[in-house]
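Teaching assistant here, posting this on the class forum so everyone can see the example we discussed in section. The complex has four components, and the goal was to see what a joint structure prediction looks like when all of them are supplied at once.
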Amino acid sequence: MPCREKEVNPVPETFPNTPEAARPTMIDVARRAGVGLGTVSRVVNGGHGVRDETAQRVRTAIDQLGFQRNEVARALRPGKKSSSLALVLGDLTNPFYATIAKASLEVAGQSGFAVVLGSVDEDPEGEKRAIRELVSRQVAGLMIVPDQGDHAFLQGAGVPVVFVDRPATGIDADIVMVDNEGGGRLAAEHLLGQGHERIAILLAPSYYTTGRRLRGFRRAHRSAGLDVDESLVVQLPEGNAESAEKATRELMLRPDPPTAIFASTNFLTEGVLRALGELRRDPAVVGFDDFRLADMLPTPVTVVASDIAELGRSAARLLLDRAAGADTRPPQRIVLPCALIPRGSGERPPKKKR
Amino acid sequence: MPCREKEVNPVPETFPNTPEAARPTMIDVARRAGVGLGTVSRVVNGGHGVRDETAQRVRTAIDQLGFQRNEVARALRPGKKSSSLALVLGDLTNPFYATIAKASLEVAGQSGFAVVLGSVDEDPEGEKRAIRELVSRQVAGLMIVPDQGDHAFLQGAGVPVVFVDRPATGIDADIVMVDNEGGGRLAAEHLLGQGHERIAILLAPSYYTTGRRLRGFRRAHRSAGLDVDESLVVQLPEGNAESAEKATRELMLRPDPPTAIFASTNFLTEGVLRALGELRRDPAVVGFDDFRLADMLPTPVTVVASDIAELGRSAARLLLDRAAGADTRPPQRIVLPCALIPRGSGERPPKKKR
DNA sequence: ATGAAAGCGCTAACAG
DNA sequence: CTGTTAGCGCTTTCAT
């Protein structure tokens, strides 16, 4: 007789609300179907190499018992990574990140993958901790919207990594992002083309992305034969709306205020508009990244936008391929285009007071 | 000699970009530190009952090897549920849900729990599938923003469940939600108090929440001694902005349009405002749930708001306690209060055309 | 085609 | 205190 005779569980039929409802295992199914453990496993995994009749019996047992494969045990097998991806990002409350999350979630879900979100606070050290935790959970791959700081520790993690929105230092991995420089150029060109010559640019602190946007901004000026007034390049201490609001106020109260403002981030755009509304000033404004209700504000907001959802989708697809070993190319660099959406705020002429 | 002599892995030293980097195990650590497996485990789990010196040696080995406990193997132990919670919700793109996600993520993270997001499409069947998948991943608990449909199948799942924002049918579990009826009443009272007598209410399709809001709406009317004009109770076919926009247009083009509109959802509010903007009509408007930029629209929007983040936090806290077995009370029902935030749109007088 | 058996990495019970 | 050992539920050879 089998030495593994579950005579434990005295009264397993009572679980009013108990957290301890014993879920049936493959062994239970095997016994019930009168077959071997291996056969059940084979059936569960596609049922190849199993006689139809046997498979049917197993399936019946599975239904009767309400059996469900334990993904954890399954993932224990080395090499056989779990069927979940990790997504590490900052603030889900930012529609930008939420969109990425949703999109990647959809793609992952279609392949039967779940997505684990590491809790990431603002601090750079927190991200590292979160990533480690996620790795220890044996996720099949990591999608990371990296914070600053070195990510070299991921090098030998043994898990494929795809960076989203911006690259990380210390490691050469796949990266999916938008054409920040092109977008910055687009915004500046649009404004310059309108005759603006004093254009301010608001930058979130040391983000890779805003740096590139600034570069595009400068490039556009150069192409137009103009110099960038460095006093109009505002490096914000924080990347939130409040910070931008304050800076905008200071900017507009100078003796020689800019005639146009380029806000390099959705939250910054909000701050700019808020300050402008209070000041009752209306320089031209172009924001980077579209946002909900942008078209319904007193003056609809002109923005440089890109397909954020596609960012998430591409990242998930790429990661899934890497995880499956289906993609062994060297690290890829996917860059999505930006487009300018004129809505009004960016088309105001440079006249001081219209 | 030990019979477990990893002579497998012919050439494990090459991983240029291989997904197969062998992570060290406790056994490796034990060997390295010259101690037994159990000792390593003890150290990793707090190190109680281990001589300081020994523990130190183990820790050194852990650092040298860069060892990290395999959470999957750890969770294999029955009863010892994994250290992750599941969060099942609809559309992360809706700031309402994103806020819940972020908040619960924070709380879970503080307790060392990760949060797994099941990919949930719109369909009701998809939710069931997602939940099953999550359960099979042995999560320690489920937070669910339930769709319609019966959730009885969760009854014997053996995992604690907390519903968020609305209860589910077929199962008696913890629920954390806002005072929808009170909020609806608040909105209606505010409008009625202004002298409005023809107030329209827009409802998303058969959501529990909007139903309660309608109830509060009716109750306020009753208290004021007024009847609700049923032709102004608009049951939308879909819960999106477009649907609300269309309905609002029809509403306002009637011979006897309402003098005020109560949009029972953030997205609906958006649709209402959009239609009103195009129509250039300005009945009073009150929305349910606050939203970003509500105060910056041409007419700042009056809303009934609640602490959504707290919704997520409470849910996570409750679930964590349940999962830990620290809370064995009967299913709880936590209801968060609502407050009306007057901003302008809700304070317009009932005069037909101002 | 199918059963038996060996682990995956870890925890926990049991010896020393 | 610390080493040994038996599994957790599943996938996977290896026989049969």
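For the discussion questions: The mean pLDDT of chain B is 90. Chain B touches chain A through 70 residues (CB under 8 Å). Think about how each of these relates to the inputs above.
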